[in-house]
Protein backbone atom coordinates (compact mmCIF):
# COMPACT_ATOMS: atom_id res chain seq x y z
CA UNK A 1 0.00 0.00 0.00
CA UNK A 2 1.40 3.42 -0.87
CA UNK A 3 2.24 5.55 2.12
CA UNK A 4 3.21 9.02 3.12
CA UNK A 5 4.92 10.64 6.05
CA UNK A 6 3.02 12.42 8.78
CA UNK A 7 4.80 14.25 11.55
CA UNK A 8 3.66 13.59 15.12
CA UNK A 9 5.21 14.76 18.33
CA UNK A 10 7.53 12.47 20.25
CA UNK A 11 5.11 11.87 23.15
CA UNK A 12 2.42 10.75 20.70
CA UNK A 13 4.89 8.46 18.96
CA UNK A 14 5.89 6.92 22.31
CA UNK A 15 2.25 6.31 23.23
CA UNK A 16 1.60 4.77 19.82
CA UNK A 17 4.67 2.55 20.11
CA UNK A 18 3.62 1.42 23.60
CA UNK A 19 0.11 0.58 22.39
CA UNK A 20 1.52 -1.35 19.44
CA UNK A 21 3.78 -3.34 21.73
CA UNK A 22 0.99 -4.04 24.20
CA UNK A 23 -1.61 -5.05 21.62
CA UNK A 24 0.60 -6.73 19.06
CA UNK A 25 -0.88 -4.52 16.34
CA UNK A 26 1.14 -2.41 13.99
CA UNK A 27 1.43 1.30 14.58
CA UNK A 28 -0.21 1.86 11.19
CA UNK A 29 -3.17 -0.32 12.14
CA UNK A 30 -3.62 1.54 15.39
CA UNK A 31 -3.49 4.90 13.59
CA UNK A 32 -6.02 3.68 11.02
CA UNK A 33 -8.39 2.58 13.79
CA UNK A 34 -7.95 5.78 15.78
CA UNK A 35 -8.62 7.98 12.76
CA UNK A 36 -11.69 5.96 11.76
CA UNK A 37 -13.04 6.15 15.31
CA UNK A 38 -12.48 9.92 15.40
CA UNK A 39 -14.05 10.34 11.95
CA UNK A 40 -17.12 8.40 13.13
CA UNK A 41 -17.31 10.48 16.33
CA UNK A 42 -17.22 13.72 14.32
CA UNK A 43 -19.90 12.44 11.94
CA UNK A 44 -22.21 11.46 14.81
CA UNK A 45 -21.68 14.77 16.59
CA UNK A 46 -22.59 16.61 13.38
CA UNK A 47 -25.67 14.42 12.93
CA UNK A 48 -26.72 15.09 16.53
CA UNK A 49 -26.36 18.85 16.02
CA UNK A 50 -28.46 18.67 12.84
CA UNK A 51 -31.11 16.58 14.61
CA UNK A 52 -31.22 19.04 17.53
CA UNK A 53 -31.62 21.95 15.08
CA UNK A 54 -34.44 20.07 13.34
CA UNK A 55 -36.26 19.59 16.66
CA UNK A 56 -35.89 23.32 17.41
CA UNK A 57 -37.81 24.20 14.23
CA UNK A 58 -41.41 23.25 15.08
CA UNK A 59 -42.62 23.23 11.46
CA UNK A 60 -39.68 21.13 10.27
CA UNK A 61 -40.10 18.76 13.22
CA UNK A 62 -43.82 18.36 12.48
CA UNK A 63 -42.97 17.50 8.85
CA UNK A 64 -40.37 14.99 10.08
CA UNK A 65 -42.92 13.25 12.32
CA UNK A 66 -45.43 13.11 9.47
CA UNK A 67 -42.84 11.60 7.15
CA UNK A 68 -41.92 9.00 9.77
CA UNK A 69 -45.57 8.03 10.08
CA UNK A 70 -45.79 7.61 6.31
CA UNK A 71 -42.67 5.42 6.26
CA UNK A 72 -43.92 3.36 9.23
CA UNK A 73 -47.01 2.44 7.23
CA UNK A 74 -44.98 1.67 4.11
CA UNK A 75 -42.41 -0.44 5.95
CA UNK A 76 -45.00 -3.11 6.76
CA UNK A 77 -46.98 -2.84 3.54
CA UNK A 78 -47.89 -6.31 2.36
CA UNK A 79 -46.37 -8.13 5.33
CA UNK A 80 -48.47 -10.41 7.45
CA UNK A 81 -48.32 -10.23 11.23
CA UNK A 82 -46.44 -13.11 12.74
Would you mind describing this structure in some detail?
There is one protein chain. It contains 3 helices and no strands. It has 82 residues and is mainly α. It is elongated. The relative contact order is 0.05.
Question: What's the structural blueprint in terms of helices and strands?
Answer:
Elements lengths: L9 H14 L3 H30 L1 H18 L7
What descriptive keywords fit this protein?
single chain, 82 residues
Give a brief rundown of this model.
With 82 residues, this protein is mainly α.
Instruction: Provide the gyration radius in Å.
Output: 23 Å
Helix/strand order, N-terminal first: HHH
Spans of at least 5 consecutive residues whose pLDDT stays below 50 are none
Largest sheet: none
Number of distinct beta strands: 0
Measured as a percent range, the helix fraction is: over 70%
Class inferred from helices and paired strands: mainly alpha
Proportion of residues in β-strands? under 5%
